[in-house]
Amino acid sequence: MNNKLFALDIGTRSVVGIILEESDGHYKAIDIIVREHKERSMLDGQIHDVLSVSEIITEIKEALEALHGTLKKVCVAAAGRALKTEQSKAVADISGKPMFSKQDILHLELSAVQQAQAAVAGEKNNEHHYYCVGYSVLYYQLDGEEIGSLIDQRGNEASVEIIATFLPKVVVESLLSALDRAGLEMDALTLEPIAAINVLIPASMRRLNVALVDIGAGTSDIALTDSGTVIAYGMVPVAGDEITEAVSEEFLLDFPLAEKAKRDLLENESISITDILGFETTISKDEAVERIAPAIDRLAETIGEEILRLNGNKSPKAVMLVGGGSLTPDLPRRLATKLNLPENRVAIRGLDAINSVSFADHITKGPELVTPIGIAIAAKQSPVQYHTVYVNDQPVRLFEVNKLTVGDCLLAAGIKMNKLYGRPGLAMIVSLNGKNVTIPGKHGQQPVLLKNGLPCTFDDQVDGGDKLTVQKGEDGVRPELTLGDLIGELPSKTVIIDGKRYEVSAKLTCNSLPASMSQPVADRGEIVFVMPDTIEGILKELKLAELLNVTRPFFIKVDGIEHKIIEFSGKIYVNGLAANLQNKIDHLDDIRFEKGTEPTLRRLVEMLGIPGTDCMPIFFNGQQIQLEQEIMEFTRGGIKLGMDERIHSGDHISTKQKDVQPFIFQDLFNFAQFEIPMDSRGFTLLKNGEKAAFDDRLAPGDELNITFESPVGLK
């Protein structure tokens, strides 16, 4: 059974209607009609005068109906020159977040598409008047480094860069209006570049970097393939009419005759023309091309520059030219020169390149028919459909190229993708041992997505009539944690003090007050934990302050002058080596304390070199005796001190010089011990063997004796 396909190619200067018959995957073009616009009703692929365009469509429809019966449905294409391509990048903070999921990635991609949509709209703030007809991911990044996939990755920052293509809504709406006025229903819709590419560049060839240029009358549409997909679309407002106008001006021809002369130059070595003054002239092909060369160069230059721009400033592997404007003389060679390509890499592709299509005998094959035939075939094989879905009970009409997803619907509804996830909770900033630490708030929740009342995801497929509900995810909250959660575990060490083991932990304070590990962390809190690392700090932490008294230096004031006497101070030993209170202590260090001695006044005087006494050696009964008398008086708190009195650190001692008398014989009795016989009748004092008296002065080394008048002598 043969199926008839009716297709329209609505161009800037003309409308082409074509009827194809399909049988087992093979197509036959059975009729074609071309009608030019009566006035300038099209501009850059968009219908500006719906009434005028609908009249041309009606003429073609009625002419074909007269031969082939009633036509109710038609395949059409949205002009590729109306497509807009934009690159965009979206970035997400994922620090402290669980592993990145597929839905997180889709949300990030859709956020990038929405940014591109806003960029396409510019300052007009009407981004929702653009349909996204497809996007491709260029690359993902994790913490600034390119990565193959973000799924289950962890890091601080994830990003994606996409390239998206958009079609203004008004282009499609005006096309539907023109068809409706002509009594036609849109059977299927495609995009002009897709139409031409589908019939000329099969999917297996799209891994090659190839440019397809559809040169019409008013504009030239460009599409580029690479890596298995269409990577960019573009348009330049220069095409076949520029060349026709150049012929018209150069040879004084009206526009239709100039168009015919331009086409004749392709097939003939010379052409005969009659100008507006009635003069007939024969011109060789070489001369004619030379005279219109500036216009051909401008066309080649403009198309070449746009191809390079779309292709990242590098030449593609090959260029295919279609459309009536591709018949411009010498254009392929000049375009090849512009792109630094061999001449055989730029070629005009006509209907003979479409293997699956045959033609009725009366149809003239040419490159201008590639796009109309492609529209009929592509619109049937890969139709773009309209759907109406409901997002939060509001109807949304969507333009579908491939599979329609929940994410597409949310974009079309104008829902801000970057506002769907709950905002992260407020962070806290605390000072930890003098350094500011930011504690991020809890991450916001994912949005709640429902399709027809059931949970769904961004990439779930949507059909016409589906009802979607989207609720913003709950916002995160401020972090709730204790000092223990923040710090982990306080550092500690073990020390040995006088043979006993002690555990020492860091001292924890918050805002200068003692704190515990279970205390909640508060914003702007100043948290300090310090591990005592000196002997003094450890003793204070262990509440062994009494040992500080043992180690305290010995200070004493004599007549208001302070003296530090190391010999009387306590001693500290760490691992057997002398130390002081400021020595650093490590884990398992052995600390030992040794008390200082409490000296007598005599020892103190000796240490300080104070002349406290006057001494004189003498001999008594053959034995040396040291006579001593105080020449200095010492008092403590007003109380007189003897030379053998104990003194203490911190004492204040005053001295006073005494009135000193010479030593006399009588002073001996204060230092020598002897017994007086019971039956003694008297005694005699001898100094150096001679009699002496009690008040005789003595000299160092004097020999003293006492003799008693009795049988028993002195002992």
UniProtKB/TrEMBL annotation:
Entry keyword annotation includes Cell cycle: yes
Domain SHS2 per the UniProt entry, residue ranges: 5-200
Any Pfam family the entry gives: FtsA
InterPro entries, per database record: ATPase_NBD, FtsA/MreB, SHS2_FtsA
Sorted UniProt keywords: Cell cycle, Cell division
Taxonomic superkingdom: Bacteria
GO biological processes: cell division
Family matches, as CDD domains: ASKHA_NBD_PilM-like
Record's protein name: Cell division protein FtsA
Taxonomic source organism: Mesobacillus boroniphilus
Phylogenetic placement of the source organism: Bacteria, Bacillati, Bacillota, Bacilli, Bacillales
